[in-house]
Write a structure and sequence with these properties.
This protein is mainly α. 57% of the residues lie in helices and 5% in strands.
């Protein structure tokens, strides 16, 4: 059922590409579908080509890049080397440094999740803090690909704007105190 729904969504996104003068959201959706399905649907475009097209629409787009990078995570069959090369390529392409830092921070948080999963808490803490430093422009650390899921906010940040699940907000110290609960 899931793949049938994705196939329908893909057709809608493909139609949206032809109808919109700036189909960035459609490219974002198509990159996600291709990543989820390993581009196995008929009429699938190459994911790298979809990202290239999204970057033509908006050379500073972040979300299509983030969507693409998600499928470079080791948990999706990619590697840290692929992630690092991708981030370096985005910097060379002229992506704003804050956005490059945010992409780079995803590598640190993925390393941190691996360390936390393996109960190496001191290494995880150092990596989480490195990721957080890279995300200073955004004031949060998103933990999303491994076992520790949620948002880590600095202690001085009180805002919960655009947060849908306040239970997911913890400080880095809270995360480390509860590291035994990571799975």
């Amino acid at each position: 059922m899931y793949y049938k729904e994705l196939a329908v969504a893909m057709k809608h996104y493909q139609l949206a590409v032809t109808m919109s003068p700036k189909p960035l959201l459609a490219y974002f959706g198509l990159i996600g579908i291709n990543g989820e399905t390993n581009s196995r649907f008929p009429n699938s475009q190459d994911t790298t080509e979809l990202l290239r097209l999204a970057n033509i629409v908006d050379p500073q787009n972040f979300w299509a890049r983030e969507q693409y990078m998600r499928f470079l995570y080791p948990s999706w069959g990619g590697s840290y080397d692929q992630m690092k090369r991708f981030v370096a390529d985005q910097k060379i392409a002229g992506l704003h440094q804050d956005k490059v830092n945010l992409l780079d921070s995803f590598i640190f948080e993925s390393y941190a999740e691996d360390q936390a999963y393996n109960k190496n808490i001191s290494a995880a803490e150092k990596l989480y803090r490195q990721a957080y430093k890279l995300q200073q422009a955004y004031k949060f650390l998103y933990i999303g690909q491994g076992g520790a899921r949620g948002l880590i906010w600095s202690k001085d940040t009180k805002s919960t704007d655009n947060i849908y699940d306040e239970e997911m907000i913890v400080t880095i110290d809270d995360l480390l105190k509860n590291s035994g609960n990571l799975s």
